Amino acid sequence: KALQLMAAQSLKPILAAQERFILVVHETDQVHHSLWDQLSSCLENWQEINLEDAVIEGLELNVLAPLTTTPVTLQPLTPLMRWWKLPSNEYLTPRDEESYSSLEALFYSPYQWVLKYKATLKAGTLQSLSDGNTLKGNLVHHLYEDFFKAHSGDVKNSQFDEVPVNAWFDARIIQLLAEEGAVLLQRGRMAEKEQFIATTRKSLHALIKQLRAANVMHIQMEFKQETDFWGGKISGSIDMTVLNAEGAEAVIDIKWGGTKYRRESLKENKHVQLVTYAYMRHKLSTTKSWSAVAYFVIDKGIMLAQNTNYFPNAWVASNDDAEAESYGVIWEKMHKTYDWRRKQFDQGRIELTVIGTKPDDVDSNPGEDALEIPKTNDGFNDFKVLMGFGGAQ
Questions:
Q1: What is the mean pLDDT of each run of 10 residues along the chain (393 residues)?
Q2: Would you list the domain boundaries of the chain?
Q3: Distance in angstroms (rounded) separating the CA atoms of residues 292 and 216
Q4: Whole-model pTM above 0.85?
Q5: Chain Cα centroid distance, residue 244
Q6: Nearest partner of 108 among 343, 379, 325, judged by Cα
Q7: What's the number of CA atoms in the CB half-sphere (13 Å) around residue 268?
Q8: Contact partners, residue 369, CB within 8 Å, separation at least 6
Q9: Could you tell me the CA-to-CA distances from 116 to 87, 106, 111, 206, 373 in Å, in that order?
């Protein structure tokens, strides 16, 4: 945040300039001034004057001389609109393979599906460094993966208590931070680092207790899947797949936070990510049964599920006004939503579900037998500057 504030402050002189901009830089500071570096990399034909040489030699300082300018034609910004219309569907054909992430974009943010997966645009990675909850979630995923690969068979052993778990954790967490979480080792972030370590340790113990209560006998981390579905091929990696003593299976999606959002998705039968994973296991398992599903939320150390049939100590996210829908029903809703979006793409139409636009009563509604589509879905949008500006047209 401090660097962002400094960058914003350095732009103020340029934004305030109306006729000309004069930058005075000491020779000793030249290579350290962020604004100088940016200008030098973007612009050419600078009029540079060495003040010391000019004063000694009596040269005329013409920095205030009239400037030669070139008129620039006004180019109005593209207005924001709810729909893009292409002349044909040539660039909107189905992909050979989808994932949950791409399906989610197709359902709720079709413009992102087009830009990311068909136009193959992506956010620049130059000077990009993972931090915040994204970094913390990735670190814990890797720590869980390492732990359960080494101790999958120990979870069911009640004698495998906090002492050996803590011994393993203390050795691994320091190594993991040095390898993948160096930003948390920076000066000024000690309290955040210690809080992260404490939260991660607590969550690992909580997860072990949940698995032990469910009588889990086998654990597989990052279980890669690929199978057929109504859109072609679908693939993905399930965070955690477990098997209990009765041979029943469950898939667990591990999240750093978002307890309220996850609970609401389960209560309202909108947990399409979990259903997608359950479908893949349903197609690929020998029993052809649907796996139980749950979220494990790291920062709270809780398991979220729609019932306690598999995880007896889970927090239950149920809705008194609506029964939990079967995975098959939700999967069929996803199918109808996919067909609805594909029909729009076949017509060359792309919906921009972004703030500042209004949904159409007909075209933005897939019907009661499909997923409920929110009016806007652009909380995480790498393409905001491509959407348009101003009020919707």
A1: 75 84 72 72 76 83 75 87 95 97 97 97 73 94 96 86 94 96 93 97 98 96 97 97 96 97 94 97 89 98 97 89 80 98 98 94 94 93 89 57
A2: 2-57, 84-128+218-393, 132-213
A3: 13
A4: no
A5: 31
A6: 379
A7: 10
A8: 332, 333, 336
A9: 20, 10, 8, 37, 20
